[in-house]
Amino acid sequence: MSGDPADLTIAEAAAALRSGALSAADLLAAVRRRAGATEAQLHAYLTLDVEGAERAAEAADAALSRGEDPGPLAGIPLAIKDNMCTRGIETTSGSRLLAGYRPPYDATVVGRLRAAGAVIVGKTNLDEFAMGSSTENSAYGPTRNPWDPDRVPGGSSGGSAAAVAVGSALGALGSDTGGSIRQPAALCGIVGLKPTYGLVSRYGLVAFASSLDQIGPFARTVEDAATLFEAICGHDPSDATSYRGVPPVVRPTLEAGPEGLRVGVIAELAGEGNEPAVLAAFGRTLEALEVAGAEVREVSLPSIPYALDAYYLIAPAECSANLARFDGVRYGRRLPGDTVEQMMAATRRDGFGPEVTRRILLGTYALSAGYYEAFYGRAQQVRTLVIEDFARAYGRVDVLVCPTSPTTAFAIGERTEDPLAMYLADVCTIPSNLVGGPGISLPVGRDGVGLPIGFQVLAPPLGEAVLLRAARAVEVLAGFAARPALATSEAR
Amino acid sequence: MGYEAVIGVETHVELATRSKMFCGCPNGFGAEPNSSICPVCLGLPGALPVPNARAIEATVSLGLALGAEVAPHSVFHRKNYFYADLPKNYQISQFDLPLCRGGHLDVEAEGGTRRVGLTRIHLEEDTGKSTHLGASGRIRAAEAVLLDFNRSGVPLMEVVSEPDLRSPEEARAFAAELRAVILALGISEARLEEGQMRFDANVSVRPEGGSGLGTKVEIKNMNSLRSLQRALAFEAERQTGLLSAGGEVEQETRHWDEAAGCTRAGRSKEESSDYRYFPEPDLVPVALEAALLDRLREALPELPAQRRARYAALGLDAGAARLVAEGDGYGPLLDAAVAAGADPRQGANWLTGEVTAHLRRLGITLADAPLTGAHLGELHGLVAAGRLSATAAKEVLAGVLEGEGTPAEVAARRDLIQISDETVLEAAVAEVLAAHPAEVERLRAGEQRLIGFLVGKVMQVTGGKADPRRVSEAVRRAAG
Which residues of chain B from 63 to 82 reach within 8 Å of chain A, CB to CB? Predict the structure, then answer.
């Protein structure tokens, strides 16, 4: 076949595998070659599962040669963010504290991908415990942006986003607590979907903020994202917050187009505060939608200015408890101490990076006696207001839209000394985590220096069908086809 | 001036569910250390809790049995503190929305019944077990700590009483009655020696008859009814001594030292914890449907107090009524015996006397013994018909408990059936009188004690199988 298999979409690769034009082993080899050519610059992966990937590729080829239909993901090389447990494969969550930790079990999503015949290439880099927006907070060094290695890929799922953008995986899983899938997807010029809270099991996801965390896919097309979503969603008895009903059916309406779609532009997020190039690309996309028959109107969500504040109380509060288990007693790196308490304290002080420590302290403080009502209690009230605001808006429109990130990829090191500037990177993505509804980012253009710009679509909880329909319509209208320099120059 | 104690008791009870509170690991005692564990109860990264419906139902059942208000909407909270045997370094517990609120337990106290109010009943997970190694065995000086997480995640129900108890004896009676209710419900084996039921208590003292509350002290670490009573007695006396001497009681947590027989102050720093409770985001609120509550209410068994009252009405004295009502399996067995024709009092006497003693000799429990209510009914019939003496009846019971068969079979095999045929009996009497003419003469002359001599001779002749009462009557008739 012509071209490098590493540049195929999941749908194209699946068709090639079925037709016999390509073997899973060759596809894996192509993806490995791409990783070999790019990893030195990118550092998207923390661990490669060489043997496991080969076994999975062989199994997929065997099934295909027997004439079986092993499903749309059989033989497809995928990457997994390193905060999802993989049995026997090192899972560090980007933290020094978990260096060398090999979980005894697979996360539910990993099990589902394996059952679907997917080839898991490796584990990708992330901000430590998924706390960050640039993947600079990894204890194992930053991941770089494939469009410009001097820039960040976004975060916290920066490794997964970079791998998919560059072709060292055809798709990947990330986790999104405040934008950690959508923001890196925007900064890396690919599609990133955060499903409705509860549709994808969190069992085996190293928790950051339990009420906000959601696993979702990265892919190069909306259709591929839908394929991955279909593979990982569904009730899991091991996750008590897992949705018990039938997951939304997305495929039949995927190509329904923009006609008649009621699109609400979030006034508070689609104006001031965004870079001009971002606003311009966003505006062009809206015009295209309108021309194509969508009803575009502005919608105000007055609680949005408070969402960031509420998020930065709720998420640290939950993380302060979720990360308490990392004490060196049962697993992970342990530092010595004269007493058990001193051992725990030394282990934690040494094991956590500055951003994680900052959030644990913030959260511990917000939950302390005498402060609970003023901080955590008040933040939960704001969360309720945000939920109500969105519910009202969804009474009038089918989807809400805004830029995914106010800026394109920023330079490595640019914001590391200013946590508040870093927190603002998530201002557009955080509200939907508070609400629990799905959100997706897809590329719609590039700025003056060629960096990709993300367009975000949000829908009400369980609204994946209309979300993906709208996203697919935008994808068609935007016609974004650029690939990062690192992916296209084999002669680097 | 006299002082009285004001006491509230917090009781932790490990529920006898098949699996643990938030995972599928078996909930059992005595397994190899760290053998009943999984990612969830070990707090591994990524593991999530799923609540045990049976544990929730068990807790609700106790609430219903004690007249508590069952919350239609209840929430689990995280209680945050660092401890090596707490795998997540937070305990999933309940805070302001427990499963049950209110209710009461009536306790028989000196001078009548004391109604003890309940504050709440909630559900949480147990911790693992730490063993401190080192010369002293004390926590601070330990050289190493061994951790066993088998107990981690075992469902733990907490019953909190109002400060309605007025003496250490009442507190003990409350704990005993609560245990009896829990056993009747079958929700825990409540074995104190295995730590399945543990007590903390709040105690203060005040001038007798007063209505205010003194400064309270919390006592922890009591693992038996006896240590609960001893600790409270020690603490009430300590506080009374302080106040009588013009001193003050300091609000604090003290630990009961069983060996030394006293309470000791805890380290205040250790106790001034801020648990930073917040709703457990990995769980959704517990919503209990009316149909479930109806089903649990209908399934409630007869409670110990009701059972005691019923036995008292059958003529049992208070002690026997309590023994039968609370002995494991005794009540149902007595009910079956009465249904099979046994006299309630006779049946209770056998159960609390010979049966209990012989089970102890055999080292088995009633549940393992082959004794049935029908057996007791049959035994009663044999005694009432004069075919077994009271003494022989006890021997028959022993035989039944040893698996020799029904009472009739045991009596036959052990040759214990009394001669009830009058002609045989009278022939034996005639034979004895004829053999001892001198003694018969003296009896007729008024020497009554010779009746005993002649009865003994008849018993000898009959090989001990005659009913002595009837022999005595026959001797009187024949000699008279």
Answer: 78, 80, 82
